[in-house]
């Protein structure tokens, strides 16, 4: 995948302590009744997600990223990256991209970086100005 850095939202570092989880969700932005992308800041759509794992969790340690519609679970391994399309080639949301962060088992933690690749340039300074004004 080759993409301009201008198409990447600010990176998000996530850390889950034992038993913490992130329930089933999509990374794409939903459309409002007015046809605008609801949680989008600049009209951008999150075309792809790249999830980079910052720690390895052993067998039975939990912390998997699970895709229920695909019946796939991926265990975190330091340095590995998981990439998926949030929308189809036509730009329509891909419901099969539904995923969840399963909880790490007791005594374990999960560390990862979310990288959201947008369908258009994402201007950080404009984003910060809008957030501050809101």
Written account of the structure:
The chain is built from one helix and eight strands; from the N terminus they run ββββββββα. By secondary structure, it is mainly beta. It has a single domain, classed as q2cbj1_9rhob like domain (Jelly Rolls), CATH 2.60.120.620. It is globular. The chain starts with 11 loop residues before the first strand and ends with a helix. Pfam families: 2OG-FeII_Oxy_3.
Strand and helix map with partners:
Blueprint: E1 12-16, E2 22-25, E3 46-53, E4 65-67, E5 72-74, E6 81-85, E7 99-101, E8 110-118, H1 124-133
Antiparallel strand pairs: 1-8, 2-7, 3-6, 3-8, 4-5, 4-7
CATH fold descriptor:
Jelly Rolls
Rg over CA atoms, rounded to whole Å, is: 16 Å
Number of DSSP strand runs: 8
Percentage of helical residues? under 10%
Shape from CA axes? Answer: globular
**What share of the residues does DSSP label as strand, in percent?**
25-35%
Query: In what order do the strands lie side by side in the largest sheet?
Result: 1-8-3-6
How far is the N terminus from the C terminus? 34 Å
Instruction: Kindly provide the name of the CATH class.
Output: Mainly Beta
Main sheet attributes: strand count, strand direction, barrel closure: 4 strands, antiparallel
**Helix/strand structural class:** mainly beta
Low-confidence blocks of residues: none
Name given to the CATH architecture = Sandwich
Order of helices and strands: EEEEEEEEH
The structural domain count equals 1
Mean pLDDT score: 89
In terms of quaternary structure, what is this?
A: single chain
Q: CATH H-level name... which superfamily? A: q2cbj1_9rhob like domain
Pfam families: 2OG-FeII_Oxy_3
Organism: Chrysochromulina tobinii
GO molecular function, one term: procollagen-proline 4-dioxygenase activity
Domain Fe2OG dioxygenase: 7-119
């Amino acid at each position: 995948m080759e993409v301009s850095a201008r198409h990447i939202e600010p990176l998000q570092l996530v850390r889950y302590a034992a038993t913490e989880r992130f329930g089933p969700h999509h990374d794409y932005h939903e459309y409002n009744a007015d046809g605008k992308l609801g949680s989008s800041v600049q009209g951008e759509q999150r075309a792809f997600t790249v999830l980079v794992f910052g720690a390895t969790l052993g067998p039975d340690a939990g912390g998997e990223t699970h895709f229920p519609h695909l019946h796939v679970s991926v265990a975190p391994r330091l340095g590995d990256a998981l990439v998926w399309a949030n929308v189809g080639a036509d730009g329509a949301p891909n419901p099969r991209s539904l995923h969840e962060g399963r909880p790490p088992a007791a005594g374990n933690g999960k560390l990862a970086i979310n990288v959201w690749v947008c369908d258009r340039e994402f201007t950080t300074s404009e984003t910060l100005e809008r957030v501050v004004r809101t």
